[in-house]
Amino acid sequence: MFAIVGSGICGLGIGWRLASAGAEVTVVDSATAGQGATWAAAGMLAPQAEAEHGEEALLPLLLESRAMWAGFAAELEAASGIDVGYRTEGTVVVALDRDDHEFLEQRHTYLKSLGLDVEWLTGRAVRKREPGLAPAVTGGIYSPLDHQVDNRAVFKALRTAYLEAGGTLIENTPVDEIAMSGGRAVGIRLPDREIAAETVVLAAGAWSRLVPGLPEPSRPPVRPLKGQMIALQMDPAAPLVEHVVWGPDIYIVPRRDGRLVIGATVEEMGFDTQMTAGGLYELTRHAWETLPGIYDLPVIETWAGLRPASRDDAPILGASDIPGLVIATGHHRNGILLAPVTADAISGLVLRGETRESVRPFGPERFAAPARQREGLA
Ligand code: GLY
């Protein structure tokens, strides 16, 4: 019997793999399932477009998971009967002025030096690919393998596949604490019952640090990083744009049904999820500068989500210092992208005690305080 705290794409993905292998699994969420970062995300599978400077060590894991996505999406669709909106047009990253242009040229050279599949486009070539982009676009990078999925459809499919595989889902129920016995995690305590588990997986996104029951040094160092988003409605028969587009400080993600997802702010605001006038202004201004045709589109939704950011912005994946407790959180901006590798790596660890080589650098032990500090000597 296994228990998973958190029903986002990672918690349910791990649960799906475990249940499909015949294990008894319970996933618990204090809110309605999948309504955290999984719901708020844009669904970009774009390590080449999105990876930030200083994240070079993370790139191989991002690329590995990206390569898994087509298979993961097909498997999920077959298991659930739900189309997850996997689109393969690729991503275009564009520059609007000389500084952006120089930055992107350097980025293109760097990505090429890694042997990655990217193509430099002149301003004219960018507009040939996406005629709706601003005349000011001076050039950009085309990244054909940076695809997208509809993250909300993925959640619905995962929930269905997980339940079909025999998993149990308990929603709107707080975990009062992770139950410990003899220094080992032995299950989870809910308000009305205790669920015994040989392994507990903590996959509660930005809330992972707040789940009671763990001693302070064992709580994963994640914090919420707010992102405000908006969605506009295009005519699906005449979409303004077909690729995922990154402009300066903005991304624009077209769905097949004409929904145009635009994001996102990056704000250290704790657990606040309010939309602000400034957030809306920045999003619409940057999006309009990149894709002027958005000006007349109706706004159909605004929302803010909380990315689970770790201290080094890389995920926290692996066995904790507490026997029986495994951590899968801290996915920062890459939770949707990293879902397939997270599901396989963590289910492999839970079922067979195997640590996948590619996640080895991202274990929780990298944040362990030096022994002298733990013992209160420093
Ligand atoms: N991955 C999209 C975002 O973090 O805003």
In short:
The chain has helices at residues 9-20, 37-40, 47-50, 59-80, 98-113, 123-129, 151-164, 277-290, 339-352, 371-374; strands spanning 2-5, 25-28, 44-45, 91-95, 119-122, 139-143, 147-148, 168-170, 177-181, 184-190, 193-196, 199-202, 222-233, 244-247, 250-254, 259-263, 299-310, 316-319, 325-329. By secondary structure, it is an alpha/beta fold.
Q: In words, what does this structure look like?
A:
The protein is α/β, with parallel strands linked by helices and 378 residues long. It has helices at 9-20, 37-40, 47-50, 59-80, 98-113, 123-129, 151-164, 277-290, 339-352, 371-374; strands spanning 2-5, 25-28, 44-45, 91-95, 119-122, 139-143, 147-148, 168-170, 177-181, 184-190, 193-196, 199-202, 222-233, 244-247, 250-254, 259-263, 299-310, 316-319, 325-329. It has an 8-stranded mixed sheet with strand order 5-6-4-14-15-16-13-17. A hairpin with a 4-residue loop joins strand 15 (250-254) and strand 16. The protein is globular and about 65 Å long. The relative contact order is 0.19. The model has no long low-confidence stretch (mean pLDDT 95). It binds glycine (GLY). Glycine is lined by residues 42, 44, 50, 227, 263-264, 307, 333.
Task: List how many beta strands DSSP finds.
Answer: 19
Structural class: alpha/beta
Question: Numbering strands along the chain, what is their spatial order in the largest sheet?
Answer: 5-6-4-14-15-16-13-17
Give the overall pLDDT as a whole number.
95
The major sheet is characterized as: 8 strands, mixed
Low-confidence regions:
none
Query: What hetero molecules are in the model?
Result: glycine
